[in-house]
Amino acid sequence: MSHAAQPQLSSLVLGGGCFWCTEATYELLPGVKAVTSGYSGGKEANPTYEQICAQVTGHAEVIKIDYDPAVVSLETLLDYFWSVHNPTQVGGQGNDHGPQYRSIILYSDETQKAAATKSLAAASKTFRDPITTEIVPLVKFWPAEGYHQDYFAKNPSAGYCRYVIAPKVKKLKEQIPALSSDRICRTSRDATTINSEANSTFETVSDIRAEIQPPTMADGIPASPTVAAERKSTFFLVR
Questions:
Q1: 216-227 residue pLDDT tens
Q2: Residues 18, 21, 53, 161: which is the catalytic one?
Q3: What predicted TM-score, i.e. pTM, was given to this entire model?
Q4: What is the DSSP code string of 155-178?
Q5: Could you tell me which residues come within 8 angstroms of residue 104 by beta carbon, excluding any fewer than 6 positions away?
């Protein structure tokens, strides 16, 4: 009996705001085999979500993308990055404020560093404001708690998922067919549409905090209500 060879996967770690959102958007791409939410960019070992929210670790919310380079290239993943968040915002994403929501690419080798630097330079030509994305070496990726993994898929009716992630996912799905010759083919306007709309349509929903219930750990222990309240009383809506 013959067995098909398993694809040799590569990984990329980056962050662009809330990892619930970046995880959901990267799972849309053909060739992406797994996306894991986690923390990186700081010095604290084994960080917890409570510590991340308290901004005491230096870590950012990031995702680890495991992908098949025979299907989707590193350059495509990086090109897509500029469409899934606003890399020009300082100190957060939308109304999610804090260094844990900063824009960041963490490279594992010189090839990734060069590709990230080149991609940022190209993207800079499509944005009015300077890109603030950090490009730094990956020291360690720490997977986030279980209740954060596949959050959008598991909690589609949660307020943040319905009002923030779902509209962004819907809009990005319209761009996926534009993948051609292993690059995202788009005009300068296409490259900035999602982010410019996000910048111009900030809204606040007073009752969204009540809609987001404290997540439950895998062992059945509820997460801290304080932490649950941290996320998300305000948000941006991509129309």
A1: 333 333 344 334
A2: 18
A3: 0.77
A4: -TTSHHIIIIIHHHHHHHHTTGGG
A5: 14, 15, 16, 40, 41, 60, 62, 133, 134, 135, 136
